[in-house]
Amino acid sequence: MNLKQLSELLGLSQTTISRALNGYPEVGEETRQRVMKAARETGYRPNRAAQRLATGKAGSLGLVMPISPEQSSDIHFAEFQSGLAEVCLRHEFHFVIIPSQPKEEQQAIRGLVSSGAVDAYYLAYMREKDPRIAMAKSLPVPFVVHGRSLGLKTDYPFLDVDNEGAFREATDLLIGLGHRRFGLLNGPVELDFAQRRRLGVDQALTSAGLTLSENAITNGPMSDEWGYRHMKHLLGLPERPTAILCASTVLALGAVRALDEAGLVLGRDLSLIAHDDDLPLLKPQNFTVPLTTTMSSLRNAGRRVAERLIAEITDPQHGPPLQEVWQAELVVRASTGPAPG
User: Fold this and answer.
1) What are phi and psi of 297, to 5 degrees?
2) Rounded mean pLDDT, 33-47
3) Fewer CB within a 10 Å sphere, N or C end of the chain?
């Protein structure tokens, strides 16, 4: 089935069919649905090259990814990209990744936009007062921020998790179990999500008349090795924490290894809560002692960012909400128990 045959079948012009399939607002909803139904039933697939020439659209989403020798690979990034790629594939969009030096990221974004290679893009790894947002708002291409930026007015399109609320709720649970000495294995200190998680912990502790000792906080890459080394540091403190919050189940994997080496029993000698990004190869319920977690799927976030960007391209007048904050789910398992006497 080609465009001409579909046109003859429906008694509509080829232009009307093309515009209906591409979401142009001047095509009525009844006609659009009729065209979409016929396309599904006949197996019609538009010629993407011709479609791009006709619409002036690249049919691509983009990301500029800073790369430096000291950066380690990130399983969390890969999980988000998997969700985004699923949606791109379903809508026959390409996904373009442009590597850049960290100091040249803004220049690379401007170059990507001016090249016409993408119709929309997203920003990730938000920092406090992130200058990329003002730059993105000045460019003529839709964008979505994955996360938020502390210190800036939230007048830009974003999708984020309520990291502050999640770690406040997790800390409240531990306080309710009688814990008074806390440790935090957090992500990189410059990133917004890590700052918000620290805020959530501080808020809960302050309300209970407690404080988080600075030597009981570590910030760094969310890796198994970092979790292991810095859990050993926390266990070596004169007054070691009885409750630990981890920014990721990957960090928790290393932390639990350090606990096992020290002969401590999770949930009895020390309680631990981790954030669960719903990583398929690291399920918290499959730890030797199942982990209590705050859970929000990174893959679902990737899917949603792609859906929002594509909607903004294909139907900008009826696009999704400008801002979304997802609530994490607190799932209680065996890794949390009463504070040891």
Assistant:
1) -75, 125
2) 83
3) C
Whether residues 152 and 187 share a domain: the answer is no
- Measured distance CA(323)–CA(325) in Å, rounded: 7
Neighbours of 334 (CB within 10 A): 16
Structural domain of residue 36, as residue ranges? 3-44
Report which of 58, 157, 69, 56 is spatially closest to residue 112, judged by C-alpha positions: 58
- Asked whether residue 40 falls in the same domain as residue 79, the answer is no
Ramachandran angles phi, psi of 149, nearest 5°:
-130, 110
Summarised one tens digit per residue, pLDDT across range 251-302 is 999 999 999 999 999 999 999 999 999 999 999 999 999 999 999 999 999 9
Q: How many CB atoms lie within 10 A of CB 29?
A: 9
Gap between the Cα atoms of 245 and 252, Å rounded: 9
Would you call 230 helix, strand, or coil by DSSP? helix
Query: What contacts 189, CB < 8 A, 6 or more positions away?
Result: 195, 219
User: Are residues 102 and 175 part of one domain?
Assistant: no
Is residue 291 within 8 Å of residue 273, measured between CB atoms? yes
Q: Are 225 and 193 in contact (CB under 8 A)?
A: no
CA distance 54 to 146: 31
pLDDT at 53: 47
pTM greater than 0.70: yes
Helix (H, G, I), strand (E, B) or coil at 103: helix
